[in-house]
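Repro:
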Amino acid sequence: MTPPRIVIIGGGPTGLGAAHRLHELEHESWVLLERAEQFGGLASTAIDDQGFLWDLGGHVLFSHYEYFDHLLDDLIGDDWVSHIREAWIWTHDRWVPYPFQNNLWRLPEADRKKCIDGIIELQKRPPEKKIETFDDWISCSLGEGIADVFMRPYNFKVWAFPPDELSAGWVGDRVATSNLEKLIQNIETQTDDVGWGPNSTFRFPASGGTGRIWSALAERLPDNNLKTSTTVKSINPKEKTVLCDSGERYDYDTLISTVPMNELLMLLTDNTMFEDKRNSFRWSSTHVVGIGLQGNPQEELRQKCWMYYPEPNVPFYRVTVFSNYAPANVPSPGEQWSLLCEISESEMKPVNHSTVINDTIQGLQRVGLIDSPDQIISRWNTFLPYGYPTPFLGRDELIESIEPLLRSMNIYSRGRFGGWKYEVSNQDHSLMQGVEAIDQILLNKNEITYFSPETVNGR
């Protein structure tokens, strides 16, 4: 039997995961098409004119898979910096440890009482309504107090959509719930509870940023199978061909696409069956602003990893002390430091692109992260049109009406936006979506990550 010809569109973690698995299985009939000049996609790392490194967001590496762990060990060796997560929330002019709902003792008395009363009310009168939206989940799991004081304002800032327009099925291990007895004990003893979550410990490359991982993986693959600076113009599912802007044409038996699912539908030459679906997707964009500074961070920032900002007086929802991740993230370690800020945008939450850097700097001053713009020696920013694959209401039904049809054409739409499942869109999930797609195509194995997120996230 002739080995199937496989075309992969996109050289981020999912596309590289698929290519790596093909190479591992000694399957030679494949090609990977990447629009950019380098590999990594949303997990790549930029270097600005002053030599500061910037990830395209506050990425941390933790894993649900031994396969992923072993691969990273092989790619980077021992050249890692290991961290115990120090994540904080700046609210009510004070620091509250993450997760917020486990550390209410740090709040002002009135807000603390409001949050506790909401949890007590839940226990007295458990809600009977069906949980359909993320807002339903918040109020039914954490109470109206926590919902109003933190969860609703913060989640609007990060998603750029209100929680009542998001579904609830994605939550899984992404959001901590609260234990009333433990909360009251923490309040009485003024004890922080910070160990929750799958990313309570993580590691980061000692040099090269997150993008180093994916560049190293690409270097392991045969050059002849990798095509950079190659933009796909159209896909003909009947003839099973991919046409590029350059005029190059690639024939396939099976196609793996990691481009956003809505854009994939528009690339198909015969897409009439999807005309009423491709405009139904919702997502948020992300502005990433990097601020490089002279000197050293103030004492209270020297151990912090990242901080959340739920209040509307600053534009960013998260700030990462990126120089704490690895000293080599700045050109002169010990003499410079850096902050990486993220701002979400959607049709419901517009952002002024022309002022976003200055607005960010003013916000950093407002919350006391920097004293003066005179400290700044580097200003860097990028705009990611696709930042978060929103778990909008009706998402699952929309995907279920599209994905099986694509698969019937031998097209696998996978990855952070290719699969459009936020709950399995971290770097480990994304790589494994590519690996498992190849295992399904060549070995007829089930794709656990994409079709059973609760299974992998429960590990």
